[in-house]
Amino acid sequence: MIHVSAIAKRYGEREALRGVSFTAAPGERLAVIGPNGAGKTTLLQILAGALAPDGGEVTAGPTGWVPQRPALYGKLTVAENLRLFARLERVADVDATVAAMLELTALGGGEEAGTLSGGNRQRLNIAIGLLGDPPVLLLDEPSAALDPRQRERLWAFVGALPATVVYTTHDVGEAERYADRVLVLADGELLFTGTPTELRGFGGADLEAAFVAFLHEHGH
Ligand SMILES: Nc1ncnc2c1ncn2[C@@H]1O[C@H](COP(=O)(O)OP(=O)(O)O)[C@@H](O)[C@H]1O
Ligand SMILES: [Mg+2]
User: Fold this and answer.
1) Which residue's CA is minimally distant from atom 3 of ligand 1?
2) pLDDT tens for residues 58-95?
3) Which tens digit of pLDDT belongs to each residue from 142-158?
């Protein structure tokens, strides 16, 4: 369960977030979409507890944070990366957790992280976010570097997780297919929260067109 109430974040003069409020139920999948600079990454960092808001309240419990750029050690193997992050995460049984993550991701443990395909690197990145078995998983543009087939596999993998998932994406079609609800963020303001079907109501041939029409209607 995530509860966000009127959060604000400023970087100097720049208001990265203004009065953002929403909730997410257990197991819900939320897609955060919006133009570059809208505040999507800032919002996820605040949910992750990696950044403190200047105002408002956040209740998210333990979260797994998967940043856009994987913080992997290229010279270490998949298993060595998992073991290292499991120790940092202070998980109780490192060996069992690493084994569970290898099974979950269907990755071999022996390959060097630096030689993984983009799709497998992203799976490892997500596995690291899942090490502490968090009830909430936060993914920042998880599919940005993936080809269409890798994307399908990523979403099948994420879709099978029991966690509440909040992700950002530039691909509106992905929000339509893989989210229960969509949050539209523009210029630090949350302009829309609803189902993809409700957003679709803003017209156009598809959700992307509806999204663009929606932003235009709201002066963006
Ligand atoms: N560390 C930072 N220092 C100063 N400004 C920042 C910092 N991080 C983000 N911003 C600014 O805050 C706004 C929101 O950024 P961000 O959350 O990264 O947006 P998005 O992920 O939607 O592209 C942008 O105007 C960005 O330039
Ligand atoms: Mg971002």
Assistant:
1) 11
2) 999 899 999 998 889 999 999 999 999 999 989 999 99
3) 998 888 888 888 898 88
Nearest residue to 41 (alpha-carbon basis) of 210, 164, 188, 209: 188
Query: Do 177 and 111 share a domain, yes or no?
Result: no
The range of the structural domain enclosing residue 140 comes to: 1-61+135-220
Number of domains in the chain: 2
- Do both 55 and 109 map to the same domain? no
DSSP assignments along 34-100, one per residue: -STTSSHHHHHHHHTTSS--SEEEEE--SEEEE-SS----TTSBHHHHHHHHHHHTT-S-HHHHHHH
Domain boundary among 134, 163, 182: 134
* Cα(83) to centroid(ligand 1), Å: 32
Ligand 1 atom at minimal distance to the Cα of residue 140: 21
DSSP assigned state of 131: T
- Same domain? 129 vs 139: no
Q: Give the binding-site residues of ligand 1, using a 6 Å CB cut-off.
A: 11, 14, 16, 34, 36-42
Q: Which of 9, 14, 170 has most ligand 1 atoms within 8 Å of its beta carbon, as the pocket-test mutant? A: 14
Atom of ligand 1 nearest to the CA of 38: 22
Residue 43 resides in a domain: yes
- Supply the pTM of this predicted model: 0.93
